[in-house]
Amino acid sequence: xxxxxxxxxxxxxxxANPPPKVAEVPSSGATLAREAARIVPExxxxxxxxxxxxxxxxxxxxxxxxxxxKAWRGLQFGDAPQGHKQFEGDERTPEGxxxxxxxxxxxxxxxxxxxxxxxxxxxxxxxxLGRSPGGDIFLHGQPNxxxxxxxxxxxxxxxxxxxxxxxxxxWRIVPDGTxxxxxx
Length: 184
Known about the structure:
By secondary structure, this protein is an alpha+beta fold. It has four helices and eight strands, in the order ααβββββαββαβ.
């Protein structure tokens, strides 16, 4: 008889909601293309809390609560896109973990979000060789003087360029303080 009394409790427990998922940093092993495939187009989000850029895939994924919610493809980088930025003028895009630390609505490019490069390690490396690490790395749109479209190829001095429509979206959904991880 006791077993029969436990049956409704077990049925009730089976119907209970699982514990809420804790936001976690996206896996460092997953390719971004696989992460992009997990995006649910109908998922609503007001902002992202983590960005991952994969330079080799020319892809950026925005995450909200540990889940991929938006992908941007066809990113444009510095004239020398391979390798980590080490010095001012090397035209490379940095690699590593940084933060969006500000925004410039009056940029020479259509809107810009500032990346916290150089980190202390970047600065120390460059200075150990008597060089400047550079700075002023941004996510930005196309040059303001460009009437429409996109400049082809890689053309920045180390920034990450988007279409003007894409940077307008990023401007709305990427708050200051958002972590951005830039992978090779």
